Amino acid sequence: MVVLGLGVIVAALYSAAGPYRQIREFRAVMTCEHNSGGCLDSERGSIADRRTYTTVETQTDSNGSMTTTVITHYEVTWQRADGSRQPRQVSRSFYDKAAKRTPVTLRLWHQEVVGVQVAGGAEWFLPKSGEALGYRFGLAFLGLGMLLWGLLFGWWDGILLLFFRTCIWMFMGFVLVGTTTHALAYGLNTWPYLILEIALVAIGGGMLLVSIDGS
User: With pLDDT > 90 as the criterion, what percentage of the chain qualifies?
Assistant: First the structure.
């Protein structure tokens, strides 16, 4: 398990070198945009469609109790000057401002839409290089979990507990990776978001420790 974990970490970080260089380049452009403006390309577009939909998320704690949460997602589809359309999830506040047929300004980096601006609001997205970097960081975090399990624990106490611990570990990784990639692209989140992210990681870590201590 230790060797496998090390292998996963090395492979993930090696493959992350290219996306990391690209996201640092993007960060430099965003810093320039923030300081002086005009560093990103712009293109006129419009909101072609918008919708909301819900998903149900089920979570199981270390005692086997299940809780379900209904999550509402907000999605807008913009149309570019060439007629192509692209749907993306957005925040509730942006969704409320982006009515259908509303004109928007699309902000471009290497011809990729990284931001959408409407009157009174804007939504920014990770470029594809940031998403690729996040996947590799997530894989490295999985390898770290395998490495730590092999070094510190290494016992087998059932498939259900293994599945539960893996889900909790990757949930923590999802939060940490998301925070890291966002910081590399745009800088750190504001304090309310940082406090929420720290709280989520702490809750996940607590549940993980409870499952280990109780085994």
Answer: 64
